[in-house]
Amino acid sequence: MLEYAGSQRAGLRNERETPHLLSVARSLDWVLLVGVAALVLVGLWGVAGVTKFAVPNDPSYYLNRQILYAAVGGVVLVVAALVDPDLYRRYWRGVFIGTATVIAFVLLIGHAARGSTRWIHVGFFTFQPSEFGKLLFVVALAGMLAERQRVVGAWETTLRVVGLGLLPVVLVFAQPDLGTALVYLAALAAMLFVAGVPWRHLAVLGGLVVIVAVGVLWAAPAAGVNVLKSYQQQRLTCFTHPSNCPASAGYNLDQAKTTVGSGQIRGRGTNGSTQVNLGFLPESQTDFVFAGFAEQRGFLGAALLLGLYLIVLWRGLRVITVARDLFSAVVAGGIVVALLFQIFVNVGMTMGIAPITGIPLPFVSVGGSSLIANLAAMGVLLAIHARGRVSRGRRAALSGRG
Amino acid sequence: MASTTTRRLPLPPSRRARAEEPDAEQTAVEPYRLTPKLARRVALLGGLVVIGFAALVGRLWALQVLAGPHYAARAQANQVRSVRVAAPRGQIVDRNRNVLVTNRPVTAVELWPSGLPKVYSRRVAELRELAQITGVNVRQVTRLILARRQMGDMLDPVVVRPDAPAPMLTYLQERAANFPGLTLARSYVRKYPHGALAPQLLGYTGQISPPELQAFGKSGYAPGDVIGQTGIEATYNKYLFGVPGAARVRVDSLGRPRSARTLTTQPQPGQTVRLTIDTGLQLAAQNALDYGIQTARNQGKWAADGGAIVAMSPKDGSILALASSPTYDPSVYTGRVTTRKLKAQGLVGTPAFDKNYPALDRALDATYPPGSTFKPLTAIAALEEHLIKPYAFYPCTGTYVSPADHSHHVFHNWDKFVNQGMDLPTALAQSCDTYFYRAGNSFYELPKDRGQPLQKWARAFGFGRQSTLDLGTDVSGTVPTIGWKHRMYTKATDKNWQIDRLWKPGDSITLAIGQGQLLVTPLQMTRLYAAIANGGKLVTPHVLLNVENPNGTIVPTTPPAAPRPVPGLDRAYVKVVQQGLFQATHDPYGTSFGVFGNFPGPAISGKTGTAQKTVHLPGYTGEQDQSWWCGYGPANHPELVVCAMIENGGEGGAAAAPAAERVFAKFFHVQAPPPIPVKSD
């Protein structure tokens, strides 16, 4: 495409490609940054309590590791905030293929080991690609949407994006990691929504999701085909029919509710929280960490945590509106909705208002991959915000001159 | 040019929709701006966030604030478990309240199966190490855990070693962190102050087994309970067991205790079982057995590998001593029970054969031919059937041939050179076989319609059936009858079964002197002599005196049936037999005059017995004599019946009678004089 120098477009492009570090720093979303920092601190506070008696004679075993992960995540956040998100847009194919390959590789070694796995061992560090995949697939699919932004209302676009987006969903589902697959789906829907895909497309897709869900949960088992593992099936159907729930599946929910409820207003403290310390709460450091946190810190602590989430989500939604281009807006939308979905499903499942799926609680659950990936996503949000602010200021200046 | 190129691009179908928006034309020039459409959609997402968080906070409020107390109570209930606290087992004491069996506190090494490492290799490693330290077989521990799992109980510990010595406990305490699932618990095991005294009678305890649990499950027993397995411990377990208490203990989700136990219901210790046994007399009986066995062995030709002594009150059937030899140390069944320990005591495997089965209570559970000690019964039966007259003289000769016997079999008297007429007391005193052969032949020659009176009287005095002992485990023995022989000999048993199954003169003749196929227990013989001593009343042998609560009050129990006269028995005939038994110990020709003639205490009456039995023992094959002596004293108003039996011990007067004499000496507080050796039957 030919362009003449000095055109507005060339100016924009120029502006896109040269990072203005100082102006980026000046236009940071400080509220979001402080909110995330507070969330990480509250998360560490929670981990300190929940894992206090997890390792005999070493109350800070998990805390120390989590602090290390948080430090690494902080660095990743700063880097992500400084990198121009447009870089991801330009190389979205590479990002997509690379991420899909790694996740497929996890699936393969899982099969080779005749079991399931979500982790890759890299020396002393094991990491969970699907956690990073949440961010990377959002970026990649946003890149595709941005490429087709002129034809974003076309069925072809919608179908292509959905088609491409379902690949990682299927890969993660096959790990098997139903929870993360659902997070991917939520993010995919959010991206289509933010990209401006017409309502009727969304309505048709929504209808399909309902049909598939009904088919997987009720019709297929009735016909003798089991798409879900029996425990996944049980957890999901238990949520809708708590009364005819097998004891093993019902136990977790029952204990989780007891754990949350027993915290009452002020919490039982780290020493008095028998549900966590005596092991009645399953997965108290990962999937059910919210229940343990709520038991130890009470309603006050849990409300504080939810409040911080709310601040981050609010600022995240605001980032969508200040995004410099469609790509950035879609990325921000995907990140924010994925975060919302994880928070709602994780916190909701411990209290019996969401089905039990294995999703970690962002910023709180013990685990490096989740924490670092979430901080990276926050870094991307910060970058989008900063670039959007800079470009908006530039644009305002340009239009003022013209 | 760029803008024209842009405009020439084919517009997608949604172009029209885009055109409705005011800035649609500008998108190419100004690539992106917050459109109202996007703003609406972001607002919708914001609404979703608000709804979601409202739901979360509302639910959190409902659970923690509104239902908080309810869940706090549930969390509390979650971690508190009620556990069973075993009651200390009751004591077993003798009639003078001397302790026979009591308890000893021990510290047990226990393992919570649910607390073991989940990783297989680490679990195995821990079990191996623990097994090595406690000296228990790994497989044994694994088997315990598996058995517990089969019972469906994974929330109670498995006892690895019931009584760990102090150094082992210190070692384990110091390394507790290396053994997840391990706890040390205080408990009690049985203690036997008198060691190997009457272990067959007292019995032993052991952990309840799955089949026992199924059988007694409804009586309130639980896995891990220690119950009586044999003897008094088993029969009176319901008194000894006590009532387990309950304690509350904080547990984690795997059921492992995390706090000390707080008793909620105090366990009620087991009740004291008081026996009619007299420890002093029991000790004397045990020593007397050893003495009798040693005496028999000193003669050189007798295996003398066991024996039994029963000492009983002829008035009510209460048993004062019940000794069986060989004996064993019952403490091998306390604490850690190992095959090696059991083998050392001859309780399992080939050592049991080598040591001639010490676990067998020969007084109750073994049968022997009684020999001449049976003659008083033959005498009573013959008198009752008017086959003999008490003071009429019948020939006592060296041999006897039955006129009814077509084979003309010659039956020998033990003394070949006797040839005189004898009345019944003399025949009993001298134990004349031919006198009783003749009586036996008379029984044979009775017309069919008179039935089998000898066997009838034998049954009336308790032979061929259980002795109604309150232990309930004794055997019946055998009283051969025409019908019994007919049933016993079939095509399957031998070639000449059609001949062998017939009742022949020899059967009646040998039965009359307590030989042939007659088999009795020492307890049955004691009962016969008690009936002779008390003038014809059959007593109910019993060992339970009473059951006492720990505070001393008596627990109501069913009393043993009162002595009951033998139906149709003429007491005058019993007097004749009593006279014969007195002469047997006091007339110079009496068979145990040498032993009891100079007894320093009150007069003792009694009868020897020497019963031939074909045996196959290491070093001894062929006929071995079962040495018997049964009698009572004082002769006029008897207070004690004693029956002594030395297995393969030779002549009754040489082994069993001196043994019985020592029991009487102890009972009457006199010193027994050394016996005068005399040939007897």
* Principal-axes shape call of chain A: globular
CATH architecture of the domain at 85-275 in chain B: Alpha-Beta Complex
Oligomer: heterodimer
- The share of residues in extended strands of chain B comes to 15-25%
From the helix content, strand content and strand pairing of chain B, which structural class follows? alpha+beta
- Mean of pLDDT of chain A: 84
Mean pLDDT of chain B: 87
Distance between the termini of chain B: 144 Å
3D architecture notes:
- The complex is a heterodimer of chains A (about 400) and B (about 675).
- With about 400 residues, chain A is mainly α.
- Chain A has one domain (about 25-395).
- Chain A has helices spanning about 10-15, 20-25, 30-50, 60-80, 85-90, 90-110, 130-145, 155-175, 180-195, 200-225, 230-240, 245-260, 270, 275, 290-320, 325-350, 370-400, and strands spanning about 120, 125.
- Chain A has a two-stranded antiparallel sheet.
- In chain A, strand 1 and strand 2 form a beta hairpin.
- In chain A, helix 7 runs parallel beside helix 17 (about 370-400).
- The two termini of chain A are about 25 Å apart.
- Chain B is an alpha+beta fold and about 675 residues long.
- Helix content of chain B is about 35%, strand content about 20%.
- Chain B has 25 helices and 23 strands.
- In chain B, the strands form seven sheets. In chain B, strands 2, 3, 4, 5, 10, 18 and 19 form a seven-stranded mixed sheet that branches.
- At the A-B interface, helix 1, helix 9, helix 12, helix 14 and helix 15 of A face helix 3 and helix 4 of B.
Task: Label this structure with key terms.
heterodimer, A: 402 residues, mainly alpha, two-stranded antiparallel sheet, 1% strand, B: 681 residues, alpha+beta, Penicillin-binding protein 2a (Domain 2), Beta-lactamase, seven-stranded mixed sheet
